[in-house]
Amino acid sequence: MSDLTDLDELLSKRGRSAQFGAYVTALAFDASGLPGFALGDGTLRLGPDHQSIAAHDGAALSLSAHPQGGFVTGGDDGRLVWTRPDGGTQELHKFGSKWVEQLAAFAGKSPLLAAAVGKMLYLMSPGGEVLKEIAHPSTVTGIAFDAKGKRVAASHYNGASLWFTASGSLVAPKLEWKGSHTGVAIHPAGEALVTAMQENALHGWTLPGGKHMRMSGYPSKPESLGFTKSGKWLATAGAESIVLWPFFGGGPMGKPPMELGMGDGVIKRVACHPQREVVAAGFNTGMVLVADVGRERVLAVCGPGRGSVSALGWSQNGAQLAFGTEEGFAAIVDFNG
Predict the structure, then answer these.
(1) pLDDT at position 11 over 60
(2) Would you state the pLDDT for residue 6?
(3) Which end of the chain is more exposed for a tag (fewer CB within 10 A), N or C?
(4) Which are the contacts of 195, defined by CB distance < 8 A and separation ≥ 6?
């Protein structure tokens, strides 16, 4: 059942929006609920008033919530920068002229940062101390920590690598599959690792056994993927609806995916709710939807016409959803409002 009659009603009633005038490259909420938007002009827009922080000389390419509050961003100026909640900035590391295109953070008992620069993956303390440098066979295209921060995964050409954060040992020595892998996700219970691929497909491996899983049939490249809170479903972009692969009952192999939230266009970004079996989706038309997987209900958040959705994410308590577009439109919708 869908409620798509007034596509902008939720945005109008419970949202606040802004026009930044620059490509929204990434967004996140920190642990306190503070929102941050990274932009192609090198600025970070911070908080409900979108305070403009000059973080990078060039584009801000990547962003993650910092474990100690605020945000860490990577830029095409080779800098890794921590922007604190009060707007103050600190350069954590300088990687020369190399782009910092991928970031991830783990905010548990032993907090960590991970930054990808070319073929290298750097594990770092929250203060920017490099703890480990891990070389890969080709450029790292995606990073993900597992739920406990004990392992970090990296996607790259011809497969993925999965490392223990406390040692140099590979968990699975041969997570290999020919082709260009462009992003990575780890099952919440650590039972599988899945990558997005250039040729309109996903590839996965069971853990620790390394059995292959192939999920194909997409009309376009699935640029975004993530597991729901329970780990029962893998939500992906790349089609006119949210494609949800079942990771239960022997799936996903041999089982068809469920599809929710048909829209006019192709989904570019998905974001799974941190507490419920709910998935948000952003389209290349600018439309944003939220789907309740269990009830198979779809709710419109924002109608089309504001540029392709380039960033999408929930606050850590699941009360707010933020999104941004290639045309610089950004919004935060309060679902408790």
Answers:
(1) yes
(2) 83
(3) N
(4) 142, 155, 159, 160, 177, 181, 182, 183, 184, 185, 202, 203, 204
DSSP secondary structure string for all residues of 265-325: S-EEEEEE-SSSSEEEEEETTS-EEEEETTTTEEEEEE-S-S--EEEEEE-TTSSEEEEEE
Query: Shortest CA distance to 72 belongs to which of 131, 20, 28, 132?
Result: 28
How many angstroms from the chain centroid is the CA of residue 253?
A: 24
Whole-number Cα distances in Å, 136 to 158, 160, 163, 170, 259:
11, 9, 11, 12, 35
pLDDT at 146 over 90: yes
What is the pTM (predicted TM-score) of this model? 0.95
- pLDDT exceeds 60 at position 4: no
Extract the tokens encoding 48: 């409900």
Whether the per-residue pLDDT at 32 is higher than 80: the answer is: yes
User: Using CA atoms, how far apart are residues 124 and 335, in angstroms rounded to an integer?
Assistant: 35
